[in-house]
């Protein structure tokens, strides 16, 4: 087993912490009395949906971009993510008055394009797939000197996400368990690094949807693998981890105590429950933590548990359908 402290020494997390507060606000930790009484423990929600782009990815993007040398900042940045990472890069670049180019395939829905446009980033539609969009990013790097901001497999990105862990240590020093949505693993690797360096006994639970949990299958296989993408409510958890993954695979492997896969029905129910009990609209990816908690209630008895509510970028028509199904299932209509 490699020494993960050599991969990312913990002082980098504290440097990230100092750096990002120029552009990123601290998020609230609230107690869920409803979930606490269900599991007979203390359950808290870390509200990463309260950022201006409604997702935690602003932290990693801020740390990466603010840490670039001045001449690279002046040339600008690019990325090929159209999801929350793309929004984060566009937002941070705008705050810093920098150029940002978001590359995407023609298949990206108009609603997403509009949001990135609103943030003032330049959009380049290229090729046929997101892989082609990545090729366009590499051209922009080679031809115009733009810096590619990767979505998760990068030290600065991981340390940015790790600042969530530093806030948890301050707000809940007696934390026993963190439940963390898991896709590429930047979020879990970062939170794991921060929490385990504070107290190695803290449990880190990763949650993914049953349909296409690439990190989970890669952990089982002992190496990064690829899976077919399937439709899921947790669309922000889609995407591979990269066959030549450098950081997040070994870090997640070292940090994670358990993975919990949750069904589409359980994600739907968790989304409905958060609206019903907390008046909190979250996206499917962010609801996987609540779904995992409900799947194994007895495991969290008498524990201080934090669920990372990672974002709330969900189409309002999806919220409508979810709410209808939730109300029907619970015989409230
Ligand atoms: C990106 C994302 C995740 C997963 O983060 P990784 O670092 O890729 O594991 C979870 N939830 C939301 C809302 C996200 O945008």
Defining traits:
single chain, 333 residues, alpha/beta, 6-stranded mixed β-sheet, 4-stranded parallel β-sheet, 10 strands, 48% helix, globular, binds pyridoxal-5'-phosphate
Write the layout of secondary structure elements.
Elements: H1 4-7, H2 11-20, E1 29-31, H3 33-39, E2 42-47, H4 57-66, H5 70-75, E3 77-79, H6 84-95, E4 100-104, H7 110-118, E5 122-125, H8 130-144, E6 147-148, H9 155-171, E7 177-181, H10 186-198, E8 203-209, H11 214-221, H12 248-255, E9 258-262, H13 264-278, H14 284-295, E10 304-309, H15 316-329
Helix pairs in contact: 2-4, 2-9, 4-6, 4-9, 9-10, 10-12, 13-14, 13-15
The structure holds pyridoxal-5'-phosphate.
Task: Write a brief structural summary.
48% of the residues lie in helices and 14% in strands. It is α/β, with parallel strands linked by helices and 333 residues long. Strand 7, helix 10 and strand 8 form a beta-alpha-beta unit.
Oligomer: single chain
The radius of gyration over CA amounts to: 19 Å
Characterize the overall form: globular
SSE run: HHEHEHHEHEHEHEHEHEHHEHHEH
Task: Specify the helix fraction band.
Answer: 40-55%
Biggest pleated-sheet summary: 6 strands, mixed
Helices, by number, come to 15
The small-molecule ligands in this entry are: pyridoxal-5'-phosphate
Strand order of the largest sheet: 1-2-10-7-8-9
Write down how many β-strands occur, each being a DSSP E stretch of 2 or more residues: 10
Q: Span from first to last CA?
A: 54 Å
Nearest-integer average pLDDT: 95
Class by SSE composition: alpha/beta
> Which residue ranges are poorly predicted, with pLDDT under 50 across at least 5 consecutive positions?
none
- Tell me the fraction of residues in β-strands, as a range: 5-15%
């Amino acid at each position: 087993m490699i020494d993960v402290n050599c991969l990312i020494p913990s002082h980098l997390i504290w440097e990230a912490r100092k750096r990002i507060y120029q552009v990123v606000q601290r998020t609230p930790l609230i107690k869920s009395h409803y979930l606490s009484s269900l599991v007979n423990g203390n359950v808290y929600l870390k509200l990463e949906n309260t950022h201006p782009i409604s997702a935690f990815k602003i932290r990693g993007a801020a740390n990466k971009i603010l840490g670039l040398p001045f001449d690279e900042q002046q040339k600008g940045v690019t990325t090929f993510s159209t999801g929350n990472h793309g929004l984060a890069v566009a937002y941070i670049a705008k705050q810093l008055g920098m150029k940002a180019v978001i590359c995407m395939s023609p298949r990206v829905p108009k609603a997403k394009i509009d949001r990135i446009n609103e943030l003032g980033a330049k959009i380049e539609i290229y090729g046929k797939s997101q892989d082609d969009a990545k090729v366009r990013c590499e051209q922009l790097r080679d031809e115009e000197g733009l810096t590619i901001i990767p979505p998760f497999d990068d030290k600065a990105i991981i340390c940015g996400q790790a600042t969530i862990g530093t806030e948890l240590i301050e707000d809940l020093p007696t934390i026993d368990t963190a439940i963390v949505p898991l896709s590429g693993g930047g979020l879990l690797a970062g939170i794991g690094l921060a929490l385990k360096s504070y107290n190695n006994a803290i449990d880190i639970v990763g949650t993914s949807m049953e349909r296409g949990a690439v990190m989970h299958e890669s952990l089982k296989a002992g190496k990064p693998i690829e899976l077919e993408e399937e439709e899921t409510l947790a669309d922000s958890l889609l995407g591979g981890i990269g066959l030549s993954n450098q950081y997040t695979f070994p870090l997640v492997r070292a940090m994670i105590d358990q993975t919990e896969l949750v069904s589409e029905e359980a994600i739907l129910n968790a989304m409905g429950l958060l609206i019903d009990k907390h008046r909190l609209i979250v996206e499917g990816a962010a609801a996987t933590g609540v779904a995992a908690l409900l799947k194994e209630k007895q495991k969290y008895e008498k524990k201080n548990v934090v669920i990372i509510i990672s974002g709330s970028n969900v189409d309002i028509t999806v919220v409508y359908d979810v709410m209808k199904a939730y109300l029907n299932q619970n015989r409230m209509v």
